Amino acid sequence: MEIGAFEAKTRFSELLETVRGGREIIVTRRGEPMARIVPIGDKKEEIALLLREFEDIRAGARPGPSIRALIEEGRR
Fold this sequence. Notes:
Number of helices: 4
Strand content: 15-25%
Number of strands: 3
Number of domains: 1
């Protein structure tokens, strides 16, 4: 759902109830998206998802030189 900034200001309480129901609202100014109002949700679940994404990124990363090797190389 998209709504202009002026209308969002005048209907803020109603928008909060809409968000409480699980919907996302995009606030626009002159047709350009400026903000997103989303339900808070379960933070523990969100954090767990982020940690899994980081683990996937780490698993796919190629091993490189160690920090110690980089430091020693810089001293030469």
